[in-house]
Amino acid sequence: MVEKAALRPTDVILEVGPGTGNMTVKLLEKGKKVIACEIDPRLAAELQKRVQGTPYQTKLNLMIGDVLKTDLPFFDICVANLPYQIGKNNFRPPPKVESSVVRIEPRNPPPPINFQLVSPDFDIKLKITDILDKNGFEKKRARTMDIDDFLG
Ligand SMILES: C[S@@+](CC[C@H](N)C(=O)[O-])C[C@H]1O[C@@H](n2cnc3c(N)ncnc32)[C@H](O)[C@@H]1O
């Protein structure tokens, strides 16, 4: 994953969920700075201990909390291993889930956005439900769908 990220020595990297820091140390080797946001304070303490007294200590900004509720500082690139650190072949029988490494790059230049005002009674929840209903997806939920359903 670190290889795929093609990190540059000038990159400020955001790592979501560093755990005890197995990937963090690799990111610290490659980038200028790592902002690591970990929800579990015990794991964060382990990571802090791991870098203490090493040259990486000053390159790591460790934040404790839920990344979704945290005000994050500026970063250039996000590298994270959130849900499935174990591949499906580690299980017998293999679970019916797929894991992927996803690389998302912002478009440069950014596409033009046609901002439009919506009426005060616009309800995004109703809009989405309406679209799902019209396309026969009212009973489909991510947890009950497989990859073919998504691709279809
Ligand atoms: C699959 S582990 C990855 C650990 C480590 N990055 C690695 O590659 O070995 C997921 C990590 O994300 C953390 N985590 C889960 N939800 C989080 C959230 N909402 N905000 C921050 N960290 C989260 C977990 O505590 C755990 O350390």
From TrEMBL:
Keyword flag rRNA processing: yes
Pfam family, one: RrnaAD
Keyword Cell inner membrane: no
The EC number(s) this enzyme carries: 2.1.1.-
Gene3D superfamilies (UniProt xref): Vaccinia Virus protein VP39
Binding, S-adenosyl-L-methionine: 1, 17, 38, 66, 81
Record keywords, A-Z: Methyltransferase, RNA-binding, rRNA processing, S-adenosyl-L-methionine, Transferase
Enzyme's top EC category: transferase
Stretches assigned to the Ribosomal RNA adenine methylase transferase N-terminal domain: 1-108
Assembly description: Part of the small subunit (SSU) processome, composed of more than 70 proteins and the RNA chaperone small nucleolar RNA (snoRNA) U3.
Membership in a protein family: Belongs to the class I-like SAM-binding methyltransferase superfamily. rRNA adenine N(6)-methyltransferase family.
Function of the protein: Specifically dimethylates two adjacent adenosines in the loop of a conserved hairpin near the 3'-end of 18S rRNA in the 40S particle. Involved in the pre-rRNA processing steps leading to small-subunit rRNA production independently of its RNA-modifying catalytic activity. Part of the small subunit (SSU) processome, first precursor of the small eukaryotic ribosomal subunit.
The protein's name in its UniProt record: rRNA adenine N(6)-methyltransferase
